[in-house]
């Protein structure tokens, strides 16, 4: 069906032709995004084997995960701005090469120190790579219809990466060695680098601009303080002086960062990027989603392996239906409707459906079956998240000037990282407290090792998971409410904006 062409003013510049290789370029970008996302879960599956091999203690093993999230979350704003200043394609390639090198170092680790350092180095380069990948995709696909399809693929990768990481981690750990959970990044990154050199085009960079050093220090320190505080809250106590200092100091540093951004000549994060109602709503929605979902994956993995006694491989396979559901939700629902309906029409029902899936998981007991509870729960979650992710990501990065795409993309990634740290610490604390309360109420003496006590401990553990999962469902419903209030933009197809609106950094004010 043909559509009438929009009239163009006589003195208007013609729109640049679309790159005929852009869809191949999307494959390269999606591959890089997959590396970053799955690396957050693939190591979790390999961690027990790595602990035995390298002699990690129960107290310091968390640094195999925390070192990565700290560096990643703390440096995202800086990484995004570096891409704006020095070129997204260059940052993308450097990030891939550095990530591959750090992965090889971690795979060859002979002790805890080397592994933790390698994981931190992975986070540093991921902070450069992730915003560059999202910025390249946003500036490559400006047509609303094509953008919907592109974000469908990207949303499916972002949503399914965690489940793919668990499956791949189980396969590599069970049939090869835990080190291959890190080594596998090297050939994949090499393929992505080759594709980037040939297929990707850099949309340009700001010339003559300087890096906001003070802003980089304040912003990175603020985010790092919050992420580290919540990470430590899981192993320490919420009343621990260090945890309190970190959680109080982080917002203070971010407040100073925001104040400085109003005065900096070249701000690290131009504040109009986050003042826009649509983007602010999308950022907050994604943060709440990540808070809710990170703990659920952890609880379900422990349930299947610890309570049901499943192997890592079988656990990874169990997540496959969720991955398929995410792909369907992204490519067959959201991608087809994103340019036709307002974003909240996709996000609100998607989050409500995902919350319903969590209700299935929260109602599980020790004897629950995979087909009766786990499968319907993860399929509802996958379908809902698939319909949600791409709409939220697209909204968070839309209508930003090309030279500020890195800052907008990095802010989105930062909200996800902070949300993940908050969710893991918060939900684990809720689960542990509920488990302890159940044992106390039932007067279980854990010093006894009878079969009855072991059965009671399993029941208490599942009760803790259930309470935390119900909390996650409530957080998803809160995210749906936030999207309903803030994301009031009209459908892209109904807008009458100029063809190059995607490059205009002015805020969107929907009727």
Automatic annotation (TrEMBL):
Q: Where is the protein localized?
A: Cell membrane
- InterPro entries listed in its UniProt record: EmrB-like, MFS, MFS_dom, MFS_trans_sf
* Segments traversing the membrane: 23-43, 63-80, 92-110, 116-138, 150-170, 182-200, 212-230, 242-260, 281-304, 316-338, 345-364, 370-393
Keyword Cell membrane annotated: yes
- SUPFAM superfamilies, from UniProt? MFS general substrate transporter
The terms describing its cellular component in GO are:
plasma membrane
**GO terms of molecular function:** transmembrane transporter activity
Keywords recorded for this protein, A-Z = Cell membrane, Membrane, Transmembrane, Transmembrane helix, Transport
Pfam families under this entry?
A: MFS_1
Its membrane topology: Multi-pass membrane protein
Q: What is its main location?
A: membrane
All copies of domain Major facilitator superfamily (MFS) profile, residue ranges: 25-491
Can you tell which superkingdom this protein's organism belongs to? Bacteria
Q: Which PANTHER family match?
A: BLR6921 PROTEIN (PTHR42718:SF46), MAJOR FACILITATOR SUPERFAMILY MULTIDRUG TRANSPORTER MFSC (PTHR42718)
Matching entries from NCBIfam families are given as: efflux_EmrB
Q: What is this protein called?
A: DHA2 family efflux MFS transporter permease subunit
